Amino acid sequence: MKVITTIKEMQTEIKQQKSEGKSIGFVPTMGYLHEGHLTLIKQARQENDIVVLSIFVNPLQFGPTEDFSTYPRDFERDRALAECEHVDYIFYPTVNEMYPTEPSVKVIVQARTDVLCGKSRPGHFDGVATVVSKLFHIVMPTRAYFGKKDAQQVAVIEGLVSDLNFPLDVVAVEIVREEDGLAKSSRNVNLLPEEREQAVVLYKSLQEAKKAIDQGEQNPHSLIILMKEMITSNSSGVVDYAEIYSYPQLKPLEKLEGRIIIALAVKFTKVRLIDNLILDIE
Ligand code: PAF
After folding, report:
1. Does 43 share its domain with 99?
2. pLDDT in tens, 162-211
3. I need a surface site. Which of 75, 182, 221, 276 has the fewest CB within 10 A?
4. Do 82 and 54 share a structural domain?
5. Which phi and psi (to 5°) does residue 264 adopt?
6. CA 233, 270, 122, 154 torsion: positive or negative?
7. Is the domain of 220 the same as that of 262?
8. Ligand 1 center to residue 211 CA distance, Å?
9. Burial letters 221-235, b for 16+ CB under 10 A, else e
C-alpha cells in the first residue's frame, strides 16, 4: 500500500494503472474510519483491480458553526485499517495541496439540497460537490463508492456525475446495521444506555411504514404521522424530521409512486441519529 500526498503523483500512478487496463475503485472519506467505511472498501476491493482510499477533511463543507479544526483525525489508525483491507493507495493531501489558492471556481448544487439534512446546512453540499469533483479528476475512478446512510449525499453526487458527465459509476452501498436493526454509526456510542435500547425505533418505524405501503397505503402524510407517533411513544427522542420524497430527485410527493425515500432524523440527549429506507413502488 502506498500513501500519496500530492495530486501530481496520484494522477501519474492512476494513469499508469489505467494504461495497463486496470479498473479503479475509489472510496472518498474524511478519515477516522468506521465500519461503514470498511464496508465500502470491501465492496470496492471485490469489484476493482485497484482500490484508492482518500482521506481529506474538507474545510469547504463545514459551516461557520461546525468545527473543522476539532473533526476527529487519526491517520495511523486509518492507515492500519486500510492495510488490513488491502487498499492499494491512500490519497492523503494537505489542505494546501488541495486548495493552494483562494478558489476561483466552486460547484453550486442547485437541487436536492433544500430538504432533509441539507436544509439546516446551507452550502454544505456545494463544498462536498466541489471536493468530490476535484477528487474525481485526481483519482479518475471507474467506480466511486458512497454509503446509503447518507442518502442525500448519494443523490447530490449522482446529480453531479450525471450533469457534469463524469465518466464513472456511482455505487451506493447498503446501510450496515446492528443486530437489532439500528444503523451503525460512530455516533451511537453517545447514546445513553436507555436511549440505545430505544434507538431501534428509527428502524422499526421505517419497517412499519413499509408494511403500511405493502398493505396499500399511498398517502405520504399518513405514513409520516404513523412514524412520528411510533417514535415519540416508544422513545425519549425528538423527531427532527420525518420526510418522504422521490429519489434521487428529492421532490415532495402527493402520492407514493416510483422510487421513494423515507428519511428520519431523531435527536437524543447527546446525539442526533439518521436513518432511511429507499423503496421502489410498483
Ligand atoms: O462523506 C464524506 O465523508 C464526505 O462528505 C466526502 C464524500 C468524503 C467529501 O468530503
Report:
1. yes
2. 999 999 999 999 999 999 999 998 889 999 999 999 999 999 999 999 99
3. 221
4. yes
5. -130, 145
6. negative
7. yes
8. 33
9. eebbebbbebbeeeb
Q: Domain check: are 132 and 49 in the same one? A: yes
Q: What is the DSSP string of 195-215?
A: HHHHTTHHHHHHHHHHHHHHT
| Block residue for cell numbers 493507495 | 89
Residue owning the nearest CA to atom 6 of ligand 1? 29
Q: Catalytic residue at 124? A: no
Is 135 a pocket residue for ligand 1 (Cβ < 6 Å)? Answer: no
Q: Which residues are annotated as a binding site?
A: 30-37, 61, 147-150, 153, 176, 184-187
| 198 and 236 housed in the same domain | yes
pTM over 0.90: yes
- The pLDDT tens digits for 124-157 are 999 999 999 999 999 999 999 999 999 999 999 9
Cα 182 from Cα 199, distance rounded (Å): 7
Neighbours of 25 (CB within 10 A): 27
Instruction: Please give the grid coordinates belonging to residue 46.
Output: 471485490
Judged by DSSP in three states, 279 sits in strand
- The phi, psi pair for 53, rounded to 5°, reads -115, 125
Does ligand 1 have an atom closer than 6 angstroms to the CB of 58? yes
Structural domain including 15 reads 2-173
Give the alpha-carbon dihedral of 273, 278, 279, 280, to 10 degrees.
170
227 and 261 both lie in a single domain: yes
Nearest residue (CA) to ligand 1, atom 5: 128
Strand runs (DSSP E) across 48-183, as ranges?
50-55, 89-91, 143-147, 169-173
Classify residue 181: in a domain, yes or no: no
Mutating to test ligand 1, I would choose from 26, 29, 66, 91 the residue with most ligand atoms within 8 A of its C-beta, which is 29
CA–CA dist 185, 33 (Å, integer) = 11
